[in-house]
């Protein structure tokens, strides 16, 4: 497992690339599909899995969590996968569901009226067309014509897990590529002290440091290529700081900047927008 | 579903709030264009325009045809624009939306009705044959301000295009191929361009060259078409909320500045392309010397 492995859709994942941690079940991430069940014989080893790639990309394995997935690359179309966090926009509501747009010009996704933390018939949020939500993809259904279902709670615990799922108020949404969104999620979910950050992104740490004095910011990254940013804590600079964050993210996405350039860009944009750091 | 997805409430409110503080999403000032590049393809009249994230290709072509019966001395000039699924997922092939009709109408008025191309010079033989010039606009990416970008593309294309030479001999029209005779540039009388402004907050905020999200959040648009000399050839405010008359007066000055700026960008690109062609053109091929070393 020395060199990175690039897979094309339909390629099998070689057994020696899979994590060899037998204590936990193998977790499949995005872009992979299990084709046949492992043999039920006692001698079965993880190498009995036949996994095929459904997306092109680099294979990534995590030995500690016994997880394997394909690193998503930037493509402009988002395909919902169960478990993804998305920023969705309510289109209209019906008796049982909110009909939401994950991507424009695609069939609406359904979000149950009661799929919110602590929601009952009386306390459910009243959302109207144009409102934004941070939600998780619950299921995508099989085959053509099936509906994508969203949820804002963990069905097992009844809590909004991870925190922050639910309606988004204030702030602004910026469009980024799906690959960048995936990198941002990876960068923010695992904090490390590496010099070049996780997934080559240092922008959020850098912005966090610089905007701390101004009141910090909230961010919700959707895998559908939408980032919601809110700086309402920083009173008079709120709009400027939000625009600055949006500009940093979209520029880094567009020009594929490396960590050094990302730091330079953050300083430049903040100076440009006349925000003290 | 030939319709752009509606903007969320959050986005609409934020764009308005930011504009009230004089801040635009991409950090531009109110009267600033996005970065504009004009480049030319291998053939005459093939232009690529990139205005921020909006990009399009314009192709000018010519054909010998019979002039219209009521205008025997005039050639024919047509602009055709079609919004296909290539440009944006919101557009459907073969179905005309409001935006398409609107853009086509404005382009027609700014360029064709202002006589930017002298159609009389396209006449070959009275009532029998003339040149038909056709400008096709293909949108490859859409992020607002389609009208200005197409206008830039068509005007650059008309200046770049060369039609084959044609002569009349004994009542017969002879068209020479591009390699037989040096092709002839079109007769451009003036260089009109359109400049689009969008208004927000009851007409108090006016911005130039709006991106798609800004366009969707705006109340009304004002289009001013004028040439380098400052002659206004088109002025429109079709729909939306009312706009103060003073906006037209002050923004015409801004528009003139922008038209000059854009025209100089087009001129620079044309000259660079001409210099490149001069190296490998007909003159080069007709040279008597050869590359063999004599020694």
TrEMBL record, chain A:
Subcellular compartments: Nucleus
TM segment ranges: none
Domain K Homology: 171-234
InterPro entries: Exosome_RNA_bind1/RRP40/RRP4, KH_dom_type_1, KH_dom_type_1_sf, NA-bd_OB-fold, Rrp40_N_euk
Domain of life: Eukaryota
Pfam families reported in the protein's UniProt record: KH_6, Rrp40_N, RRP40_S1
Domain Exosome complex exonuclease Rrp40 N-terminal: 26-76
Keywords: Exonuclease, Exosome, Hydrolase, Nuclease, RNA-binding
GO MF term set: exonuclease activity
Official protein name in the record: Exosome complex exonuclease Rrp40
Species of the source: Aspergillus lucknowensis
Origin organism lineage: Eukaryota, Fungi, Dikarya, Ascomycota, Pezizomycotina
From TrEMBL, chain B:
Protein family (similarity comment): Belongs to the RNase PH family.
Compartments it resides in: Cytoplasm; Nucleus
Keywords: Cytoplasm, Nucleus, Ribonucleoprotein, Ribosomal protein, RNA-binding
Cited Gene3D superfamilies: GHMP Kinase, N-terminal domain
Keyword check for Transmembrane helix: no
Gene Ontology CC: one annotated term: ribosome
Keyword Metal-binding among UniProt keywords: no
Domain Exoribonuclease phosphorolytic: 32-164, 192-243
Domain of life: Eukaryota
Main location: cytoplasm
Protein name listed in UniProt: Ribosomal protein S5 domain 2-type protein
CDD domains hit by this protein: RNase_PH_RRP45
Pfam families listed in its UniProt record: RNase_PH, RNase_PH_C
């Amino acid at each position: 497992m020395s060199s990175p492995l690039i897979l094309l859709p339909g390629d099998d994942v070689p057994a020696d690339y899979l994590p060899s941690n037998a204590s936990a079940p193998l977790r499949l991430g995005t872009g992979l599909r299990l084709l046949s069940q492992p043999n039920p014989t006692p001698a079965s080893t993880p190498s009995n899995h036949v996994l095929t790639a459904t997306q092109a990309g680099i294979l990534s394995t995590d030995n500690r969590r016994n997880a394997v997935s394909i690193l998503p690359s930037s493509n402009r179309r988002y395909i919902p996968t169960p478990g993804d966090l998305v920023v969705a926009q309510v289109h209209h509501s019906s008796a049982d569901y909110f009909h939401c747009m994950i991507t424009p010009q695609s069939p609406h996704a359904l979000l149950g009226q009661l799929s919110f933390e602590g929601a009952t018939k009386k306390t459910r949020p009243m959302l109207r067309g144009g409102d934004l939500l941070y939600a998780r993809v619950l299921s995508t259904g099989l085959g053509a014509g099936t509906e994508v279902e969203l949820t804002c709670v963990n069905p097992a615990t009844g809590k909004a897990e991870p925190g922050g799922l639910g309606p988004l108020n204030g702030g602004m949404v910026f469009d980024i590529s799906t690959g960048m969104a995936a990198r941002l999620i990876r960068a923010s979910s695992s904090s490390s002290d590496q010099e070049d950050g996780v997934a080559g992104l240092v922008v959020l740490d850098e912005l966090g440091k610089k905007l701390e004095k101004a009141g910090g910011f909230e961010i919700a990254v959707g895998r559908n290529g939408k980032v919601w940013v809110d700086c309402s804590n920083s009173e008079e600079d709120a709009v400027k700081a939000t625009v600055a964050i949006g500009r940093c993210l979209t520029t880094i996405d567009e020009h594929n900047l490396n960590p050094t350039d990302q730091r330079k860009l953050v300083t430049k944009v903040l100076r440009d927008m006349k925000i003290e750091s | 579903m030939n319709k752009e997805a509606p903007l969320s409430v959050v986005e609409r409110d934020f764009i308005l709030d930011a504009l009230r503080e004089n801040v635009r999403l991409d950090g531009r000032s109110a009267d600033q264009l996005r970065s504009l590049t004009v480049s030319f393809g291998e053939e005459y009249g093939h232009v690529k325009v990139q205005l921020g994230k909006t990009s399009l290709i314009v192709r000018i072509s010519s054909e010998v045809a019979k002039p219209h019966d009521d205008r025997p001395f005039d050639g024919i000039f047509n602009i055709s624009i079609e919004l296909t699924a290539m440009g944006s997922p919101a557009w459907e092939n073969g179905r005309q939306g409001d935006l398409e009709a609107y853009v086509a109408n404005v382009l027609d008025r700014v360029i064709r009705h202002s006589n930017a191309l002298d159609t009389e010079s396209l006449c070959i033989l009275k009532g029998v044959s003339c040149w038909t010039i056709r400008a096709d606009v293909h949108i490859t990416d859409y992020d607002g301000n389609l009208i200005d970008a197409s206008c830039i593309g068509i005007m650059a294309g008309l200046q770049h295009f060369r039609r084959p030479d044609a002569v009349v001999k004994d009542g017969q029209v002879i068209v020479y191929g591009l390699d037989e005779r040096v092709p002839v540039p079109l007769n451009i009388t003036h260089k009109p361009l359109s400049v689009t402004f969008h208004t927000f907050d009851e007409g108090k905020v006016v911005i130039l060259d709006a991106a798609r999200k800004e366009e969707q959040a705006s109340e009304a648009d004002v289009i001013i078409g004028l040439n380098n000399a400052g002659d206004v050839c088109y002025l429109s405010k079709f729909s939306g909320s009312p706009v103060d008359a003073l906006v037209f007066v002050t923004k015409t000055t801004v528009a003139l500045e922008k038209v000059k700026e854009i025209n100089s960008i087009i001129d620079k690109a044309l000259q660079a392309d001409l210099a490149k062609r001069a190296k490998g053109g007909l003159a080069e091929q007709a040279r008597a010397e050869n590359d063999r070393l004599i020694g």
